[in-house]
Design brief:
Blueprint lengths: L12 H14 L3 E2 L3 H5 L4 E4 L5 E4 L9 E9 L2 E8 L3 E5 L4 E3 L2
Parallel strand pairs: 1-6, 2-7
Antiparallel strand pairs: 2-3, 4-5, 5-6
Amino acid sequence: MSEPTNNYRLPGEVTLRNAAKIAIVEDKPILLDYWTVSIDKTALIGAKDNNEKLLVKSEEEYTSTIIKFYKTKNGTNSELIIITENSIYIVDGEIPSRKIS
């Protein structure tokens, strides 16, 4: 890999193991495309007025509806395994959340 990489921490072993178990049972892919933006606090968990929750990167980029959250610990950091209708996402446990429209 000749591309420069940022020094982002990786999801913890327990988080990855639990996400793998869920992925096998639910036959869903594990996606990490919200991992770095959740650490940077540029992504968020958005809640609509009807209490539907989504992972959101921008007005144009967001996930399907969140079905369930699992919280895990990685040393002093917390992490979330987020199950949506279509996929499993791993994000930093300190990801912001707010109302969206």
